[in-house]
Amino acid sequence: MGGKKKLSLKQMERMQVRKDEEERQKKEKAGAPKEKKPSGIIPPDPKSEKIAGELKKMPVLTPYTVASRFNIRISAAKDFLEQLEENGVVQLVSGNHNIKIYKAPD
C-alpha cells in the first residue's frame, strides 16, 4: 500500500555521511561556548562618583539597563535605584508596581 519506500544500504550510508558532515560543520561554526558568569547580588556603592558618572551617560534608567550594565540581579538593581533616588542622584520619571523609570537630574 502507501508509505515510504525502504532505502537500500548504499542510500542509508550516504544519508548518514551527509548528516555527520552537517553536524561537524555546525560545531565548527559555533566555536567554543562562552562562559556564563552568574549575576552578582551586591550592587555597587551608590555614593561613588564613578558610578554616578556612568549613570549620567545613560538616557533612561530602568532596573534592566542597570542590571545589564553592572552585572547584578534585577532585584538588586531595583534596590540600588531606590537608594540612588533617596540620595538625589536620580529622579523618578514614571512607574507603576511592575517597573519604574528613572533619569539623571538636569
Can you walk me through this structure?
This protein is 50% helix and 8% strand. It has 4 helices and 2 strands. It has helices spanning 9-30, 49-57, 63-70, 74-87; strands at residues 91-95, 100-103.
Structural class: mainly alpha
Helix share, percent: 40-55%
Q: What is the straight-line distance between the termini? A: 79 Å
Q: What is the CA-atom radius of gyration, in angstroms? A: 26 Å
Assigned CATH architecture of the domain at 49-103: Orthogonal Bundle
SS element count, helices? 4
Task: Write down the secondary-structure element order.
Answer: HHHHEE
Mean pLDDT: 87
Give the strand tally: 2
Architecture blueprint of SSEs:
Layout: H1 9-30, H2 49-57, H3 63-70, H4 74-87, E1 91-95, E2 100-103
Antiparallel strand pairs: 1-2
